[in-house]
Amino acid sequence: MKRSDRLVSLMNYFLENPKEHTSLPSFSDKYKAAKSSISEDLSIVDRIMQEEGIGYLQTLSGVSGGVSFIPDFSRENSNQFIDELCHTLQDSSRILPGGYLYMSDILGDPKMVNQIGRVLASAFSHLEIDVVVTVATKGIPLAYATASVLNVPVVIVRRDPKVTEGSSVSINYVSGSSRKIQTMVLPKRSLRDGANVCIIDDFMKAGGTINGMTSLLGEFNAKVQAIGVLAEADDEEDEREVDSFTSLVKIKNVNMKQKTIEVRHGNFV
Amino acid sequence: MKRSDRLVSLMNYFLENPKEHTSLPSFSDKYKAAKSSISEDLSIVDRIMQEEGIGYLQTLSGVSGGVSFIPDFSRENSNQFIDELCHTLQDSSRILPGGYLYMSDILGDPKMVNQIGRVLASAFSHLEIDVVVTVATKGIPLAYATASVLNVPVVIVRRDPKVTEGSSVSINYVSGSSRKIQTMVLPKRSLRDGANVCIIDDFMKAGGTINGMTSLLGEFNAKVQAIGVLAEADDEEDEREVDSFTSLVKIKNVNMKQKTIEVRHGNFV
Known about the structure:
Strand content of chain A: 25-35%
Largest interface: A-B, 57 and 56 residues
InterPro entries (chains A, B): PRTase-like (IPR029057), PRTase_dom (IPR000836), Pur/Pyrimidine_PRTase (IPR050118), PuR_N (IPR015265), PurR_Bsub (IPR010078), WH-like_DNA-bd_sf (IPR036388), WH_DNA-bd_sf (IPR036390)
GO molecular function (chains A, B): DNA binding
Keywords (chains A, B): DNA-binding, Transcription, Transcription regulation
Domain Phosphoribosyltransferase (chains A, B): 106-251
CATH architecture of the largest domain in chain A: 3-Layer(aba) Sandwich
Oligomer: homodimer
Family (chains A, B): Belongs to the purine/pyrimidine phosphoribosyltransferase family. PurR subfamily.
């Protein structure tokens, strides 16, 4: 196979298999090329990945030597994306009763969702994460987009148990903003004991839902390494029950009467 | 930019932007290269895409000339993937009360989910589809994976209305297998009138849920162009309420007593 052909094939392979370790000899075998040629290929791929701001190739030498693609959305790409997101969200027709914001169109756009996942995953790529956890339903696409980049599975906490998931662990918790008692359920066999977890959700107000998830995860001795949300509501900051989290955007000053809204960068940067 | 660099960058661009039309001059500008060089690049990319069985580049000549990446998972890749899927599912420890099958681990694996999406999208890539519709919760990741390849948005039908989605249309329907009356809700502004729709779900027994969705979609004058499911239950075939659909696998002969199960290729091939 010629270099040009190998480069196209390699790029496809790396993008399909983020954070997966592959040995150099296996590339040599696949492409019937010398290791030195493969090394040159990899340095070209690595350079372009960095120039495009999508990540880099990490090389490990030694017996277990090889290479893996570490997705790492550049600061520039991330900032530009969050700028656009703020602009899109700052549209007064999005204001819904109760100070909520209509975001279903954004959460329904796979390309948008994949970009959000890339930004969140880049923020957490240096952490040890075994699994991404979210709660049904709105956070699900974001959780998959993030997990896809981190190359880990997704576990979904539900509000109601399902017959198709076997026995479950459930907790009751008090929702932060409405002060109502709610239930959360996680199937027993969905999460191993002591896993390193990253929580992903679409929206955080006072943080009651995420606190509930943390309690439920405690029953599995999980270690919450990171919390990432698309948007946080600024006005609930004082009563917030969650300390450390990453948000892409912050919703400020939702004025139902005047139909105005302010959307700023979150604490991501 | 050199050819080798361009090839890596182009491959990244196409994989990120499936089914998106891009003009040749815009590539010439971006890479500061002659149109003839770009044409040669594209033919290399196209050839390798076809060799790897992931799709091809579609070229349109004329004033609106340009190129788009059409993802098209090869029959060979699809069959091999479905083989593995059957093998994984045919594990007796997956049998749950009621003849259900534990599939949360598969549906929780982003790589698996993306592959399923690729296979389903390939089956529907020749159809005109404006939006992928699914019902909460298990079908959601499959819907996004499919929509991502088809480059269309996802709309999620819910069992309960949400304050964050504005006014909604709801219907009641009779579930096929349990004969219970259930509700389905779709926010008014989530789907435009007369859209071409592809329904995606994880599991189909008698087909009541999908029938319910079809009725609800009727309220939006939507045209259901395709129905795709990961798995169908074979034993419900006689009473099935849905005629035309695509399934990747077929669950046969679930024997709760002897703890045996048979999983075969669905009607995909």
